[in-house]
Each structure stands twice: as C-alpha cells, then as structure tokens.
Write a structure and sequence with these properties.
There is one protein chain. By secondary structure, this protein is an alpha+beta fold. It has one domain (12-129): OB fold (Dihydrolipoamide Acetyltransferase, E2P). Helices cover 20% and strands 34% of the residues. The protein contains four helices and nine strands. The chain has helices spanning 33-39, 85-89, 92-96, 121-129; strands spanning 12-14, 18-23, 26-31, 42-46, 53-54, 59-65, 69-73, 78-83, 105-109. Strand 6 (59-65) and strand 7 form a beta hairpin. It starts with 11 loop residues before the first strand and ends with a helix.
C-alpha cells in the first residue's frame, strides 16, 4: 500500500526530491514521497557499496520502477556507512514508508555545515508547487 503524501518537518530536502535526516555527524538519506509517487511501484534499488564516498548533487545509486530507472542524487557528501538491506530486498518498502523503513543509506558527513544548504519543508513545498 502506498504511503500518504507527507513531508516531515524534521528533515532537510534537496531540489532533486531527496531527503536527509541529520543525526550528529551522520545522516540518513532517502527519496521523498513526491519522488516515489512519480516513479510508481519500485522494483529494484542499486545501492552504493559501504565505504564508498558520495558527493552532494551527484548520483550515488539507481532506483528502478515499473516506469523508469532513475539516479538517486546525494543531498549531502560523505562516506556510506550503511545500506538499507530491507530496501535492496524489497524496494516497494520505499513506496510504503519513504521516511521510515524506506530509507536508503546512512552516511558519515564529510562537511558538518553542508546540511545548512538544504531546504526546509516550507522551501521544498515551494519547489513542488513549481513542478
């Protein structure tokens, strides 16, 4: 069952429809409700390897749906310290719970000030209104 449209206030957002939950010097990353809804039913997640360094605004993995294959864009730079194996095994988890069980990766932040450049929920909703 697909999740209801929501954009949690405690997250930071990237214009490419990715989110970050910053926790000290780490962050959990995923795609927004808008992204999973636009893609449709997800059938495959091609994650990066643990230990890989990802760069803000650059692709770090691919998500495949019944409609298309899309790059997942990094909202922040850092080192991958965990991949959500549940999403690798059952990609539809993202459709069901994009901000909870459907997170994609956990990173160790390369730059503690980088999250300040992301959008808050109000600014992200403004981006959505322009779509």
């Amino acid at each position: 069952m697909a999740a209801t449209e929501t954009y949690p206030e405690d997250l930071k957002y990237h214009r490419e429809h990715d989110w970050a939950r910053v926790e000290g010097d780490e962050a959990v990353l995923g795609i927004t409700w808008f992204a999973q809804d636009a893609l449709g039913e997800l059938v495959h997640f091609e994650p990066p390897q643990s230990g890989t360094t990802i760069a803000r605004d650059e692709p770090y993995g691919e998500i495949e749906s019944v409609k298309a294959v899309s790059d997942v864009i990094a909202p922040l730079s850092g080192e991958i310290i965990e991949v959500n194996q549940k999403v690798v095994d059952a990609p539809e988890t993202v459709n069901e719970d994009p901000y909870g069980e459907g997170w994609l990766v956990r990173i160790r932040l390369a730059d503690a000030s980088e999250p300040d450049s992301l959008l808050d929920v109000g600014a992200y909703k403004h981006v959505l209104a322009e779509q």
